[in-house]
Structure formats: structure tokens, C-alpha cells
Hints:
By secondary structure, this protein is α+β, with helices and mostly antiparallel strands. It has helices at 2-11, 22-35, 39-50, and strands at residues 55-57, 66-67, 70-73. The protein has a 3-stranded mixed sheet, covered by helices on one side. A hairpin with a 2-residue loop joins β2 (66-67) and β3 (70-73). α2 crosses α3 (39-50). The radius of gyration is 14 Å and the shape is globular. It starts with a helix and ends in a 6-residue tail after the last strand.
Amino acid sequence: PDDQAWDDVASLSAWHPVALSWPLLESARRIYERHALSWWDAMIVAAALESDCGILYTEDLSSNTRFGDLRIINPFEVS
């Protein structure tokens, strides 16, 4: 139901998601061009950097790739 879906989405605000902004788009574009990532992956990396994340878990990027202080971990790669 709509109300339950909205409650689920609203509960995610506790994670303090990064708002879409022009600086975020500019950062994503630099990452997209410099690292040849997909636009979506570049946006995720840019948002993680803006949030001061230390680790980003994703199956779309290779483990131990670094973007500044951000370390990528692919939970499905065997070490």
C-alpha cells in the first residue's frame, strides 16, 4: 500500500542520504571522466565521498580500488 511504501522510504532518511546538488553532479562528472565508470557508479562514489564514507561495498567495482580515502570492497570477490 502507498502509506506503507512511504513509511519505508521515510525510514531511510535516518541514513542521512546525500541530496542531489550541482557540486555533487560536478564531482560525479570528474569521477566519470577520470575513472571511466558508468554514470550511476560515478554518482554513488561521489555521494560516498561527500558523506565521508571510508568503505563502499558494491559488486559493480573491483575490491581495493581507492578514490581518495574511499576504499571499494566487492563482497562477492574472493580474496
